Amino acid sequence: MCGIVGIYLKKKSLHKKLGNYLSGMLDNMSSRGPDSAGFALYNKDNASKEYKYSVCFPYNFNVEKFKVSIRDEFKDILVKHISDHLIISTKTYPKAFLLFLHDNYKELKIIGYGKSIEIFKQVGNPKDIVKKFNLSKLQGSHAIGHTRMATESAITLDGSHPYSTGEDECLVHNGSLSNHNNLRRNLIKKGKKFNSFNDTEVAAGYISSQLSKNKSMKKTLTKCLSNLDGFYTFIAGTKNGFAVLRDEIACKPAVIAETKDYVAVASEFQAMAHLPNVNKAKIYEPEPGVVYTWGN
Q1: pLDDT digit string, tens, across residues 164-189
Q2: Beta bridge partners of 133
Q3: Under DSSP, is residue 53 helix (H, G, I), strand (E, B) or coil?
Q4: How far apart, in whole angstroms, are the C-alpha atoms of residue 295 and residue 287?
Q5: Domain ranges of the chain
């Protein structure tokens, strides 16, 4: 049992409130996932010309020394430090920059990159994680989040959601996939790399591989129904918005609340009870095997 949440703001004037809305949603989902939490924030209207790399560093890592060293290598670098995470901005293309980090800073964990996305995740109680990252103050156009109850893999950062396996892409998942080992092997043969044994990372990798073939998010998630076995509710994020899919049996819960100002998705309605005018929202459960998209 895990908790998943997402919110898409229809009005730019509300972007400054995104973190506040999302923090309440994750707080209220902590009962479904006490082991770890994470979230991805997007700002689709202010996408930078630079790439942003979300990086987690270990205890005793010398952040100030790292800043000096990396600025010597890349002159346009900007580094934002939040808790044990860094958001590194540069115009350097991902292939070159990711290779540089891998070769020189193997202790760093790269958890996502793109021009719109910032990802944060930690092991621990979701309520504490929300406070550590000062989530209520962060801004953006849309976001997805996850609270985890570990079932098939260890309670580690590598086992925490969201998973990002492509530029400005990420996935959160409630459920379990039964064919992820075979699918992982097939994706590795095609060049995909994985950092964990978690089934959700495999689903994220599959979705990324399909999107890279110029397929829409709706077509990509529809293919999941044929190729991913198990029980799942997905929220898949891109720079433009997010999409929701429940498998055709739909035993994993989800509820959607939509108003003229926002669309919110969560495993349980209690995650959305604090949102403005939610009592006037159109509230419904996503149908089994149907893809719902906003912004994509």
Answers
A1: 999 999 999 999 999 999 999 999 99
A2: none
A3: strand
A4: 19
A5: 3-47+119-294, 48-115
**Is there a catalytic annotation at residue 56?**
no
How far apart CA 110 and CA 119 sit, in angstroms, is 10
User: What's the DSSP call for residue 289?
Assistant: T
Instruction: Please tell me the chain's helix, strand, coil percentages from 3-state DSSP, rounded to the nearest 5.
Output: 30, 30, 35
Tokens 């209690």 locate to 270
- pLDDT tens for residues 188-217? 998 888 988 899 999 999 999 999 887 799
C-alpha 14: how far from chain center:
20
* The model's pTM: 0.95
Q: How far apart are CA 60 and CA 56, in angstroms?
A: 12
Is the fold of 3-47+119-294 the same as that of 48-115? no
The torsion angle over the Cα atoms of residues 108, 109, 111 and 115, rounded to 10 degrees, is: 20
The catalytically annotated residue of 2, 56, 170, 224 is 2
User: What are the pLDDT digits (tens) for 106-163?
Assistant: 999 999 999 999 999 999 999 999 999 999 999 999 999 999 987 766 788 999 999 9
Phi-psi region of 83 (alpha: psi -120 to 50; beta: other; left: phi over 0): left
**What class does CATH assign to 3-47+119-294?**
alpha beta
In the CATH scheme, what architecture does the domain 48-115 have?
Answer: 2-Layer Sandwich (3.30)
Two tokens, residue 153: 């893999």
H-type alpha helices, 35-160: 63-73, 94-104, 126-132
Cα distances (Å, whole numbers) of residue 153 to 149, 159, 207, 289: 10, 6, 21, 26
Cα(22)–Cα(18) distance, integer angstroms: 6
Burial of 32 (0-12, 13-18, 19+ CB in 10 A): buried
pLDDT at 258: 98
Tokens encoding 52: 């942003």
Three-class DSSP category at 43: coil
Task: Supply the pLDDT for residue 40.
Answer: 98
